[in-house]
Amino acid sequence: MENEKAEVEIANLKKKITEFLEIDKLAEMVTNNTIEFSYKDVSYRATRPTYKQKQELNEKRITKFTELMSDEKYMMEDTLIALYLKKGVDIKDLDSKVTVLEKQKQDYMFKLGQAIKEGKSNNELNAFKTEIQKIGEQHQELTMKRAIYMDTSLESQVSVFIYSYVTYLCMEKKAGDAWVKAYSSYEEFMNGDEALINLSVFYESFLSRTELQ
Amino acid sequence: MNPSSLELNFNNSGDVLIHRVRQLAKSTHWQTLYSHAKELHFSLFANNVAFSELQILFLNYLGFYSALNMDIAMGDITDLVLEDEIYEDAYMYYKQKVDKKKVSERGLNKQPHQDTQVPQSTQWVFKKPEKA
Predict the structure, then answer these.
(1) Fewer CB atoms inside 10 A, N or C side of chain B?
(2) Do A6 and B5 make contact, defined as CB atoms within 8 angstroms?
(3) How far, in Å, CA of A155 to CA of B7, rounded?
């Protein structure tokens, strides 16, 4: 039952994202740096953080980092990697495999580029393309695997918190003709509609990622 | 939905986003605007500074397709390259590597040989005046 609910939520999220990525909407978003969308007949808008909001975010990041550091159940990435190794999972080996795949991909990219320049046949081009696609799939599989392993790390948890917090700070909703803050407190945001939170975090991340790095 | 499944969805959607950004940057409308903006110095966006990651990505692809179109116009390659994004990336990667090699070779050729006598021009500048 719980899985079915999660699947429906993911499907709805994907549908919304596909709509959002329609070319016209994307062009508007690129030029104005705001993303408008509607959810349950309410208009919402994701905006970029102001200087003051960025200062607040930085303060929150430090506080969260310090808080998690003093909690024994959270581990830094390096500690987690060492622990995984004891359990038989070699993250460094995973990283090496990713590096090898990247090098292989570059080699095929060069060969394909050269074949295009030399006007080689479609068959030859396709052969290189197939190899590149195969490597790409293996690469994606390994990087996702790594992301799942590292999901519980302290750094990853701080990152999830910061993306949630910036969304709370910068999301607006339409009240009459005016745009007002969508949430009056972080607690209200966290206790809100989960599908709306996921959608909002997704949109906000595109506008604020540079500021958050 | 837990954070990791959300992150995986972000990653998958990230690929779709990049594809859409490329389509937008490749369009005749935006390529024309980009070309005029460079010559006439007007801004493509509402903001002139502090570009978002999405804007930087879009600008990079505007430049990428502008260079690719230039090579097609010059007859270096055919427009077959535009049929597939992997072809586009591969050609630009190849071109970048070849150009880099040419630049470094040119740089090496400019280095003087070790057995070549380099004129010591400073000996005249700092030459002591002869006593009268």
Answers:
(1) C
(2) yes
(3) 14
Domain membership of residue A60 (yes or no) is: no
ipTM tops the 0.90 cut = no
pLDDT in tens, A151-173: 999 999 999 999 999 999 999 99
Best B2, B6, B98 member to test A by mutation, with max A CBs in 10 Å, is B6
Each residue's pLDDT tens digit, B39-69: 888 889 988 888 888 899 999 999 999 999 9
Question: Is A33 within 8 Å of B45 when comparing Cβ atoms?
Answer: yes
Is A157 within a domain? no
Domain span at residue B67?
A: 8-100
**3-state percent helix, strand, coil for chain A, nearest multiple of 5:** 75, 10, 15
Q: Domain span at residue A205? A: 2-54+171-212
Number of structural domains in chain A: 2
What's this model's pTM, rounded to 2 decimal places? 0.76
